[in-house]
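re: that complex we talked abt at group meeting.

here r the seqs, copy pasted straight from the sheet so there may be weird spacing, ignore it
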Amino acid sequence: MHTRLPTWAILTTMNASIINIGDELLIGQVVNTNATYMSRALTAVGIVVEEVCTIGDNASAIQSAIERHLSLYDAVLVTGGLGPTKDDITKETLCRMFGSELYENAEALANIERIFAQRGFPMTETNRRQALVPRCCEMINNDLGTAPCMWFDVSAQARACTGQSAVAQVLVSLPGVPFEMEYLVDHKVVPMLQERFQLGTIINKNIIVQGIGESFLSDRLEEMEAALPESIKLAYLPQAGMIKLRLTARGTDKTTLQAQIDQAVQNIRTAAAEFIVGEDFESIPEVVADRMKRLNKTLATAESCTGGKIASLLTAMSGASEYYKGGVVSYCNEVKHSALGVAIETLDTHTAVSEETVREMAEGARKRFNTDYAVATTGVAGPTGGTDTTPVGTVWMAVATPEKTITKKMRYNGRRQQVIDRAVNEVLAMLARCV
Amino acid sequence: MHTRLPTWAILTTMNASIINIGDELLIGQVVNTNATYMSRALTAVGIVVEEVCTIGDNASAIQSAIERHLSLYDAVLVTGGLGPTKDDITKETLCRMFGSELYENAEALANIERIFAQRGFPMTETNRRQALVPRCCEMINNDLGTAPCMWFDVSAQARACTGQSAVAQVLVSLPGVPFEMEYLVDHKVVPMLQERFQLGTIINKNIIVQGIGESFLSDRLEEMEAALPESIKLAYLPQAGMIKLRLTARGTDKTTLQAQIDQAVQNIRTAAAEFIVGEDFESIPEVVADRMKRLNKTLATAESCTGGKIASLLTAMSGASEYYKGGVVSYCNEVKHSALGVAIETLDTHTAVSEETVREMAEGARKRFNTDYAVATTGVAGPTGGTDTTPVGTVWMAVATPEKTITKKMRYNGRRQQVIDRAVNEVLAMLARCV
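got the structure back, here u go
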């Protein structure tokens, strides 16, 4: 078992790297979201990710990357190259590097058999070969797939070779299939790292802030930041039109850390109350979904320039049907009139991008879909379609509630997708503040 | 000026690496889409990307990564760390590494002044410092932003130091802001690489195939693949429910290569005609948008389980209003009836996930939105909501045309987002085939 001095000094310095193996990443076919997920998961428990490296399915590239990373980092997490085909060479390469041999692991085999039985497919010899793992590793069962995860205690092997004690160090080989990797990271690898490396206690707290720029927010939080104890770090994580503030407390005594976090949160609330949209969420759509469900309220959407993005983000989350009844994407005036009831007179007099139109869109959606709330957007996402009076980036937004309808006009810089994403966050933040 | 032997042997072996600098990447806040974009752009001109490396804003990490990459790769493309704040240290690090000094580049300064004038902001001293570049580099003007791009002729410097000839090698430092990087890669860096390294002629051809699995497609294309000349490579690039086939021809004589590509395309068309959705596009929504615009037809959407994703993808592309009039996201039976005209009897008798319902959704959308075509989806995206008769992953799809309505049922494996993405591609492919 790995043991490191469980001191604060050690806690702050554990570092890690990620190696993602796969030709599909190097030709730009697939976006490397695995690296993002793993970086976030390691950062959340206080492990500092210092490098992410993507290489192809090539034995010498794999070996030299792993050797280099083991010379630099405490924990090296590797994904990919564990499939059943001959392109998948990670296991053989690791086996050779560690001077070990492959054997058929009974638990891994039982898992593969179970998965094939579930799918109703016959298991082939090729599939059976996935149960082979190097003798020198600890097999971590992959409940969601056929490729086993492998934990290599690098320091133990160094001790065995040299008879001398070595710095605790681990290499973990994970499958590259995102949902298998995510499950293994969350439920097995990160808990094992926390336990075996005695990483101490970490408390994270997210606060979503919207409607204020980073530099203005930082002015407001200056005093609060100056008063933070050393055990707490504050990070500003800006996204489309919003900022996620992340407080991280690290140490050994949970009660003390929690009290420090609570105090810091209280100070942020005092300094920036009117801009806080939610706490303990990753995104504004999540805040809206949670609030609607908890209050048992229903929602409809009426989207012009955001073109269905609001609906799409809300329904990407399981359970959306509990509060979201539906929406209209009204990409022309005719539909704004026929499907949402915007008066032709309003469109003629005030144009499609106006306070009057967005108000009638929201109210029409709320009425026609028979919901408690409705949000609406209309604007010019660009890059074309702007005029002198309504330049590209102009977006009108509205939230209709049982009591009233509130509206807002924004003028965004940036490209089409940025205009859309900012408008989505803005109008959903307006809604979250109303509810 | 760089010159390499313009032989076929050289053409096949030029390699490159990408170094993305930024703490925000290592904590998992931002997905590294820059790497994907750059990998694709380099691959498209026949440059083999062998490694992507992400590191933080840290001088020693930057220097050691660059030194290592220059010892391994012909071209090293670096992004990030070029902003005006003191976190941004790429320029200083490169200057020190190459033993050069910073000077104020007049063209870069004029560009920064132009951008500030355009934005209507005053230019500060900090902004003016962005015009400083190392003397030893060639400044590439960044028309879209204030951080100049820099081209370092590494081999020329080696020659100057040692008096001996060196292998042609280049390091390019680019801003990390995606749209600035994309513009510079497409319009300046890649053309310069092609010209100075005499990369020869590359012809790429994409064919989107849908409705057939990779192994079945590969069986069908076996003969065609065996007949491919050495100058042509075929890659299978699978995405949600579709496969992009990419043919790449490399050589020196454009006419010959084009004739070879044409023959290969003809052979693919013969072998897999019924599965081809489009040629020369990156995605199925792109195929649909192009076809609708060219034929001057209009489209509406009626989405249940895809929850606005179809609308969102279509409207993410500029010019969508030329053919897309709008849609309904009907996330409950009430809305399927009220907004799309699905009969209550149909919903009661056949349920929401049925051929009858999806047909009425598509026909209702086409009629109410007054369009030539409409697509509709209804299903169980999961992970909950499945029943014995309608398990998770079941999706009914329909396309209503002026002549008829066609329907299709699929049963997808995979997680919620995969079910949604596959259904989107499937129903849009059905539409593309109708038109």
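couple things i noticed - The CA atoms of residues 373 and 401 of chain B lie 5 Å apart. Chain B has 18 helices and 17 strands.
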